[in-house]
Write a structure and sequence with these properties.
Elements: H1 9-28, E1 34-37, E2 45-51, H2 61-74, E3 84-87, H3 91-102, E4 107-112, H4 117-125, E5 129-133, H5 139-150, E6 153-154, H6 157-164, H7 173-180, E7 191-195, H8 200-211, E8 217-223, H9 228-234, E9 266-270, H10 272-286, H11 292-310, E10 315-321, H12 335-341, H13 346-356
Parallel strand pairs: 2-10, 3-4, 3-6, 4-5, 7-8, 7-10, 8-9
Antiparallel strand pairs: 1-2
Helix pairs in contact: 1-2, 2-3, 2-6, 3-4, 6-8, 10-11, 10-13
Length: 357
């Protein structure tokens, strides 16, 4: 009989302490706020933004990064000294770099070269290293190659996002929304609207709605050049596009494994110019900049609100404020960058003005 002890008690002690540190971070952070978006044009429809920018790393992806680290630690995949690697469009990598630094682990983010300079600086500020690639579709293979070369661990957010989060509760984002809505005029939202990057958030919310038997419907909004919308429409999980999304954080060139089309009630394809116009307009209403993925969300919200008003329906809609606009000062809020990219938000401003006044 052969007895092999692969990991020492000291290794288990390190993992125990790592889990404690990650959970302590969640315990220190109060839940994110639910912000009312004033819409005088829709007196019978209340719209709320769950402000995920208040997380320690400034975005919705803080929740995902925490879950991915706990998942990997509890699966025995991460140990003291393990190099952590993930493929990302930016925000998840910022949060992952934060948790890696907390645990004293090296971190490498594999990202498209078009990722905003502000996000790259934030990753490096957290102690992470950025590995940039020209072709966004190669980030998965390159992340795996680096993990193999360093004997590290590839977190693979696009595969494990829907598995790492406890969708039944445990203060996930869905449970938090319904608890915060409890005293509002319409406590059970008619719609919850989110974008899809990994698909993990929509999977968590869609499952939770069914588990708790809520009557709310889930709408996923999707930017140009993303595979999620055509894949959902055509019921084809193998759908791909030949380029990446210009709205950082959402939209993918393939339908990611964590995206669960069966829990999505509706999808809306949103032009990039509309996303950016909405982000700018919402920033004016709130008095602070928001990212373009929030603009995508709000465009979907206002589309649904217009339909509800036309049908004489009353109710509430909840969406996410994914991150702050300061990360995009040199892109979405730079008129020169928009001109060079061939994006003109102006045609969408009139419709937004009618909605927001």
């Amino acid at each position: 009989m052969q007895d092999i002890d692969r990991f020492s008690r000291a290794d288990r002690d390190w993992v125990d302490d790592a889990v404690r540190r990650v959970e302590a971070d969640a315990n220190r952070s109060a839940d994110t706020h639910l912000v009312r978006l004033p819409l005088p044009a829709f007196p019978d429809i209340d719209v709320y933004l769950k402000d995920e920018s208040t997380h320690p790393t400034g975005s919705l992806k803080h929740r995902l990064a925490r879950s991915l680290f706990l998942y990997a630690l509890c699966n025995g995949q991460v140990h003291e000294g393990t190099t952590i690697i993930d493929a990302s469009s930016g925000s998840t990598a910022i949060s992952e770099a934060y948790f890696a630094a907390m645990l004293g682990l090296p971190f490498v983010a594999v990202m498209p070269r078009t990722t905003s300079a502000e996000k790259i600086a934030l990753i490096e500020r957290e102690g992470g290293r950025c590995h940039l690639v020209d072709d966004p579709t190669t980030i998965y293979a390159e992340a795996q190659r680096l993990a193999d070369a360093t004997d590290g661990h590839y977190l693979d957010q696009f595969t494990f996002a829907e598995r790492a989060t406890d969708w039944r509760g445990n203060n996930n984002i869905a449970e938090s929304i319904f608890e915060q809505m409890r005293l509002e005029r319409f406590p059970i939202p008619t719609w919850i609207v989110v974008g899809a990057g990994t698909g993990g958030t929509s999977a968590t919310i869609g499952r939770y709605l069914r588990y708790r038997r809520h009557r709310s419907s889930l709408c996923v909004v999707d930017p140009e050049n993303s595979a999620f919308f055509p894949g959902w429409r055509d019921r084809e999980a193998g759908t791909t596009t030949n380029c990446g999304s210009r709205i950082e954080g959402i939209g993918r060139p393939r339908v990611e494994p964590s995206f669960l089309p069966g829990v999505v009630d509706r999808m809306i394809s949103v032009p990039d110019a509309a996303s950016i116009a909405a982000a700018r307009a919402v920033g004016e209403v709130l008095g602070r900049r928001v990212g373009a993925s929030t603009g995508t969300n709000v465009w979907g919200v206002l589309t649904l609100a217009e339909e509800m008003r036309a049908a004489g329906e009353r109710g509430s809609i909840v969406t996410l404020l994914c991150d702050g606009g300061e990360r995009y000062a040199n892109t979405y809020f730079d008129d020169g960058w928009l001109t060079e990219a061939g994006i003109d938000p102006a045609p969408h401003r009139e419709r937004l003005t009618g909605w927001l006044r």
